[in-house]
Amino acid sequence: MAAAWFNRLADPAKARAVAAGTQPAEHVHPVVVEAMKEAGIDLSAARPQLLTSQVLSEASHLITMGCGEQCPVAPPGVRRSDWELEDPKGGPIERVRPIRDEIERRVATFVRENGLAAVR
């Protein structure tokens, strides 16, 4: 969800987000797809990918979401933040919507604070 929000809100000439995880699922959870579709973002074709050293080497920021001790180590020069958020996987849509909205709020703040906002 965070990468999708980022790519919607940020100027693509300045930055793009890539979603990757330390233990990616085979597909985006259907309720997450539904919640994002309600917000006008279609994740039905999105495929989770593994967070590799190659992905990290191309990053300027690494934002993890509550991975605790399993969080990857960011390489030198990559700024890292961990956002403690409830995992929406397996939850009902009523629980996923507030998580989606909180992620949107945090991403919008990040984009604004880092001067990455798209001109609208």
Strand residues, percent: 5-15%
Q: Which blocks of ≥5 consecutive residues have pLDDT under 50? A: none
Domain module tally: 1
What's the CATH H-level homologous superfamily? Response regulator
The SS-based structural class is: mainly alpha
What general form does the structure show? globular
Radius of gyration (Å): 14 Å
Find the CATH topology. Answer: Rossmann fold
The tally of helices reads 4
Average pLDDT:
92
Helix residue percentage: 25-40%
What CATH architecture do you see? 3-Layer(aba) Sandwich
Distance, first to last CA: 21 Å
CATH class: Alpha Beta
**Main sheet overview:** 2 strands, parallel
Order of helices and strands, N to C? Answer: HHHEEH
Q: Would you kindly provide a written description of the structure presented here, covering whatever features stand out?
A:
By secondary structure, the chain is mainly α. The protein has one domain: Response regulator (Rossmann fold). It has helices at residues 2-9, 30-38, 53-57, 93-113, and strands at 61-64, 79-82. Strands 1-2 form a two-stranded parallel ribbon.
Features:
single chain, 120 residues, mainly alpha, Rossmann fold, two-stranded parallel sheet, 2 strands
Set out the fold topology.
Blueprint: H1 2-9, H2 30-38, H3 53-57, E1 61-64, E2 79-82, H4 93-113
Parallel strand pairs: 1-2
Helix pairs in contact: 1-4, 2-4
Quick structural summary:
With 120 residues, this protein is mostly helical. The protein contains 4 helices and 2 strands.
